[in-house]
């Protein structure tokens, strides 16, 4: 018979000998043939361990009173008896095998093909910076380290003062510090397949560039011979590249008074 929900009237005829006489016995019966359910599992095959697994059993045909039993790696999950499966599963480096057993309510039971589910975990992000104390307008270089997290399809987004930096989507960042005091940095690393996200932080302390109120240049042989305004002067420039002539062999003392 075919599985077409047809009611068949069946006649069974048995022939046998009774007391050396051929005899026939006919019995009529009814056979109900029901469709076996066809079921498939749909859902996201890759999730993060911080998010819910959300799967759904889809039946090809409409059944009046179907029942469902979900299985994880062949083990019954008795708390899940509807057509949906929603729970959290821990990370592991190989997939879970999810199936669902459907009972049509007419003695027909079918188990779905295995649904392979991968559960990822978020990366642990450690941020390092080449200089954590700098002067204004200095460029710092930051790097996001993920340890032994070897996933591919990663996206980086760097932030400064909680504002996303346009185009800063690599594991490294070069940034010119444009304000004094504290400059906080953040990087969010997203695994694009599972949407797992890890976050790393670092802070750079910035000081104003030093300015001199006056620079006093003293020739110990000739006493004081000049006094100059030093607002825009650099101490190292005067020290390494003297701008004033002195006598050969003379001792020169430079005193800088900072604002």
Report what the structure shows.
- With 259 residues, the chain is mainly beta.
- It is 2% helix and 55% strand.
- It contains one helix and 22 strands.
- It has one helix at 235-240; strands at residues 7-18, 21-32, 39-43, 46-48, 53-59, 67-72, 75-77, 84-87, 96-103, 109-111, 115-120, 126-129, 133-135, 139-145, 154-160, 163-164, 172-176, 181-191, 196-207, 212-219, 223-229, 252-258.
- Strands 4, 6, 7, 9, 10 and 11 form a six-stranded mixed beta sheet that branches.
- Strand 1 and strand 2 form a beta hairpin.
- The radius of gyration is 41 Å and the shape is rod-shaped.
- It starts with 6 loop residues before the first strand and ends with a strand.
Secondary structure tally, helices: 1
State the helical fraction. Answer: under 10%
Report the end-to-end length measured between terminal Cα atoms.
102 Å
Largest sheet, strands/sense/barrel: 6 strands, mixed
What is the subunit organization of this protein?
A: single chain
Give the SSE string: EEEEEEEEEEEEEEEEEEEEEHE
Structural class: mainly beta
